[in-house]
Amino acid sequence: MNCSLGVNAFRPGVQVAAHHFSKACSRLLVVAAPTTRCFSSTTLLPSTAQNQWQAKRGRLSSSTPFSGPSSISRIAVRTLKFAARNRVIIHYVDLPPNYKDEEGLPFRVDDLAAGEVLQLFGPQMTTPAANRLLRILHGRRVAGTLDDPVLKVNTAGYTPKDRRIALDYLRKNVYVDEVVNAGLRAEDELAALEKQQEEDAQAQAQPEGEDNVTKQLGYKSRFKMYQDDTEGVEESEQKKPEPRSVYGKSAFDAIRARNEAIWKEKLRKQEEERKKLEEEYKNGKAGPLAKADDTPKREVSAKRKEWEEWAMSDLKEPPKMPAWKRLLPSTVFVALLVAGFLTYSQLYVAPSRENRLWPDCPPAAATVAVLIGANVLIWFLWKVPIMWKPLLRYFLISPATPNAFSMLGAVFSHQVVWGHLIVNMPFLWFFGTRLHDEVGRADFLTTYILSGSVGFLTSLFWLVLKGNFHMTTLGASGAIYGISAAYFWMHRFEGFKIFGLPPDPYTGVQGLAFIGLFGGLNIWGLFSRNHTMDVVSHLGGMLVGIIAGHLMEQKKKARLQGAGNTQLNLKDQKTGSGVLDTMLKN
């Protein structure tokens, strides 16, 4: 074939790719060896600069022979990067023969984790859906089908914003020359159309008995849209011989065939390994990440499965109802709690030492110990299957089906894992005993219960109004934040030392600083996408604690002022009695 043709002699798809490569000299590639396909360009590049560019790119060894004059380079339209060396495919020539648009291609070694998906797309996108969208779009970039309207049905379930975010992420992190890939795809499509026209023309010109011979000589594109819909890609490749190219068989065709064979062998080995691991897992053998002496996981008993089915709700989705119907019962219940405990704090009279249940135990220690015991008891009941149903109903807050009484029960409930309970109880003892010593049992219990219940009501409003019906919450954290905020508010201008630091003569950190620290951490968590704590209930509990601390501070001042006035009156009475006695004696 004559190799003196210019770029315009190529097919339109190749012209696009060639012009794209010829925009900047630093992007030209040297043809490694002459083939039956003709590649040439009117753009010239000195061989010295070309060799430097090739050495920098690592595309060509120093012993690679050049064709043509030493001062002129030719453009290689198709660049090649072996798929076997990199699991992420970025070149059109590496496209596997079993590629499907609805499955896409891996865009990196591992899929995005849940935290990365949350940071990239937000909470409205699930992790599997996000990775599927990224695989589809990456496959289209490699296959050159980004603008194909026929394939948009596979991404119709995603919003335009999500598709734009995914495409921007891929273009930023995974380099793919979309123009070249689209040009190569156009070349294949054009060749397929031309061969189809030739087949139609031959079918009309020859007898029907020769139709089978014509079909055997037809061009088979890598795209399924140009194949018989009744046959799979792999089956059709096994039955049909290699297609005859209008240019003849080139080195690229041989490389492509070899890469396709490598790809099929790799898929076969992966499938065998997957089946082997599944079989080992079924037989209870140690997997690749398990120790050889590890015992297999114990299967859930049939009785436990019955308890789970009995405890779980039969609802497939949250019931349809307006937000006020979900929030009104809990709001009324919490309002009654506030009124009841405020009345209790005003009418409570502390018993004498003789009438107490544990007279030798300090009141603060006894009260806080009972609260800790209640939390531990509820935590233990979560491990008893027969208690799951009442616990799920009255000790867990679910915005999908809220129960008003859970506003109080969840204050004493913790997750089944021990870490949640172990973290909360020391703080309850540390701040609870100190606040109790200052304000008494009634005001302490009022602060604890109202901080927890109002904090959970705040969290319920947040979850319902945001539509997060799949989330649940429980724990004493809101109540503990409330009593700690109340304590620090009553000592907001006093200094606190931690393990004797800072040393004298410094007074330490003021209570206001601790309130700001706790509040700032929770506000930061509120706007962080990776948090798993109910920071809204923490903030609600802190707000109640600050209000309670202010009220208890005013109450304490009034009590001290009243005690001072009483002592002054007694002193005046004693003074008056002494004067009267003196006058009588005289």
From TrEMBL:
Any one GO cellular component localisation term in the record: membrane
Alphabetical GO biological process terms: signal peptide processing
Domain Peptidase S54 rhomboid positions: 407-552
Segments of skewed composition (Basic and acidic residues): 291-300
Keyword tags: Hydrolase, Membrane, Transmembrane, Transmembrane helix
Family annotation (SUPFAM superfamilies): Rhomboid-like (SSF144091)
UniProt entry tagged with the keyword Chloroplast: no
Molecular function in Gene Ontology: serine-type endopeptidase activity
Assigned protein family: Belongs to the peptidase S54 family.
Protein name per the record: Peptidase S54 rhomboid domain-containing protein
Organism name: Neurospora hispaniola
Lineage summary: Eukaryota, Fungi, Dikarya, Ascomycota, Pezizomycotina
